[in-house]
Amino acid sequence: MELPDIDNIMKTYQTELLSDLKVDELSLKDKAMLVPALKHKWVARTMTWKGQIKRLNDAKKKAMKEFADKHSVALSKSLMEQAALSDPRIGQIHDTIDQIELLIEYLEKIEKLTGTLTWDCKNLIDLQRLETT
Fold first, then answer.
1. Where is pLDDT greater, at 16 or 78?
2. Beta carbons within 10 angstroms of residue 108's beta carbon
3. I need a labelling partner for 20 at 20 to 30 A (CA). Which of 26, 97, 112, 124 fits?
4. Which domain holds residue 49?
5. Is residue 64 included in any domain, yes or no?
6. Across all residues in the chain, what is the average pLDDT?
7. Which residues have CB under 8 Å from 10's CB, separation 6+?
8. Is residue 8 included in any domain, yes or no?
């Protein structure tokens, strides 16, 4: 299983978010009309990564079972898991899951941020109207 480079993905998302949230007076109405598409984009990315977490958890369970079968010593579940994390493949999957969970937390915050974007645009449009009257 090819494991993603989460650091580069996070940097790409940060750059993209800056672009998505940038608003100027001339593009304000256009940006307001794009808000639903922006919300969808970030929700879709969150769900994609949640699917990736599920696949990684399944791969980790499979690797843990293989590890337990290979090492026939009877250990408690928690001790077996600790021992299994010393296996490079399982440790890498575990670390990747941790990184993706952090990325998902970031994406969920972006979803909340884009959720308020409608009101931000409305307030800016109202402010523009007040300034021109």
1. 16
2. 14
3. 97
4. 38-132
5. yes
6. 85
7. 103, 106
8. no
